[in-house]
Design brief:
The chain has 390 residues and is α/β, with parallel strands linked by helices. Helix content is 39%, strand content 13%.
Length: 390
């Protein structure tokens, strides 16, 4: 057995690269005892908004709360529906349901794993009516209020046709950009800048990760941004006066301080991930595996940031076990698409309703991609996969 180990992620290597820069800042923060919505938060909101090509940033407590806050700010609740993808992390659908609205799951495009504009259009044509009350889903009698595309694994969804559909039917657009900070659409627009609200996660494993939970919303409309700032503090403005019911969605000053330091390194880390993806592609080609292993598809003209490096393979579960024996960390994102999760049984979906999402859930496997990996480790991953397939 090889002595080479390749963890799915090792954040200790990243920490070593910026530790000396961060510790004095944290020391000043500890001395100040200013922990909630202070100057570090303000600086982070401005920096991430600028980095993402947006006018406003609103720091929040997690990526999940970013989605929930966006839905609340757009007035989505009981009797409403939101169109989204079933092949994503649970928070995408879970936050819709938490508002009392109905998540409507539509299938993905196979190459990118992102929401299919054709599937959205087909659903509207076949299952909806449009009139004075807006776009209504006939079967559930819910009014469709928003579209929530997910920029999965670090590559943006095909936004131009999705935005055209939204404009035609008066739908709001929430970009679930939890895995996509710095990714770009054709023409250079960055994730979070094209919809009404962009939602980011800074969970520690993300390309830009905090030292705990944290997130952020972006917006270009100043009134919408101000509404989200009010809603994140229980809807109070001024303090202790509540015209609205919001929530406790505040980001910690500590997390903002960490993220401000890490943001300065993000471009370098992203290029490291992109370099590793290119190395994988070369190594898989040299190993003669491209007919067996489906590599990630990078849409021409887009910027893929490889939050995950996800392959499609036969005998996925056996390969995962084999790689574990070879010292290679992997993960399955995601083994059960949302339309088939038990908690959403009330929606009435069944196996076969979103076939591309179901196929992706059965065939995909994430390999290590973090920027500190050495080429020797990437070569070990590919060699281990070649040994498995003989």
């Amino acid at each position: 057995m090889s002595t080479i180990k390749v963890p799915l992620l090792d954040l200790r290597l990243q920490y070593a690269s910026f530790k000396d820069e961060l510790l004095p800042i944290l020391e000043r923060l500890y001395e100040s005892q200013y922990f909630i919505l202070g100057p570090e938060v303000t600086a982070l909101e401005s920096a991430v908004a600028t980095y993402s090509g947006c006018a406003h940033g609103i720091g929040v407590s997690s990526g999940t709360d970013a989605l929930l806050l966006a839905l609340m700010a757009l007035g989505i609740g009981p009797g409403d529906a939101v169109l989204t993808s079933p092949y994503t992390f649970f928070a995408t659908g879970g936050t819709i349901a938490r508002t009392g609205a109905r998540p409507i799951y539509l299938d993905i495009d196979a190459p990118t794993y992102n929401l299919s504009p054709a599937a959205v259009q087909r659903f509207i044509d076949e299952e909806c009516t449009s009139g004075d009350d807006g776009l209504v889903h006939r079967a559930s009698a819910t009014r469709i209020k928003a579209l929530m595309p997910v920029h999965l694994y670090g590559q943006m969804a095909d936004m131009a046709p999705l935005l055209a559909i939204a404009r035609k039917h008066g739908l709001k657009v929430i970009e679930d950009a939890a895995q996509a900070i710095g990714s770009e659409y054709a023409g250079g627009a960055r994730a979070g800048s094209l919809g009404d609200i962009g939602c980011f996660s800074f969970f520690p494993t993300k390309n830009l990760g905090a030292f705990g939970d944290a997130g952020l919303c972006t917006a270009n409309d100043p009134e919408l941004a101000e509404l989200m700032r009010v809603l994140r503090v229980h809807g109070g403005k001024p303090k202790y006066y509540h015209a609205l019911i919001g929530g406790n969605f505040r980001i910690d000053e500590l997390q903002a301080a960490v993220l401000n330091v890490k943001l300065r390194h993000l471009e370098g880390w992203t290029e490291g991930r992109r370099r590793n993806a290119a190395t994988y592609a070369r190594l898989f080609g040299e190993a003669g595996l491209t007919g067996t292993v489906g590599l990630p598809y990078a849409t021409p003209g887009y910027r893929h940031i490889y939050n995950q490096y996800v392959i499609r393979v036969p005998e996925r579960d056996r390969l995962k076990a084999h790689l574990a024996e070879e010292g290679v960390g992997t993960e399955i994102y995601y083994p059960v698409p949302l339309h088939l999760q038990g908690c959403f049984a009330y929606l009435g979906y069944k196996a076969g309703d979103c076939p591309e999402s179901e196929r992706a859930a059965a065939e995909t496997l994430a390999l290590p991609i973090f920027p500190e990996l050495r080429e020797e480790q990437l070569a070990h991953v590919v060699a281990a996969i070649r040994r498995f397939y003989g």
